[in-house]
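Bench notes, afternoon.
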Amino acid sequence: MSLENLTALIGFAFVMSVTPGPGNFLLLASGANFGIARTIPLILGISSGFLSMVFLIGLGLGEVLERFPMAQDVLRLICFAYILWLAYKISQIRSLDGTDPKTSKPIGFVQAAMLQLLNPKAWTVALIVTVTYTAPDAGIRGLLTMIAVFALVNIPSISSWAMFGATMRYFISQGNRARIFNIIMAVLLVASMAPMLLPL
């Protein structure tokens, strides 16, 4: 990979990773409710889910999705239903003391990875990054190099959302602020999926 392509990839990965979206809103909410340490599985799940998609597209799955647009519609509906469920879970967190067994567990690695794997917009971004930043003759080694570079940028970038949330823990722990904060986060999470309901 040339220095020019490497620089472009780093810039693209940063912009795609740090801008608002459902995954980052989840990280913000999780950091605020559970702290950084308990949010690490969510961070790794979001990143691993997306990078797995890049790998699968690099192996040829992207062509399959382009041939069967109905599959994208199915993914869109399943993902939206999944987001509604996650938003409901977040909205039910009433305090940060962890005493309610139904809401005291953060979203885990598998749930986070599923969110990415069901998200047709994430598949589109994965297709763009694979086609744009992997040379046709680079082979599996080039694909893995591109994924490694993206991961080095992606993980710290999305972690910043969880860190920002963690800085809010003391503030939202007062009174009923946790309840208000989590309802707002649930609404933002659902609203962030509005563009996904439009045709790709």
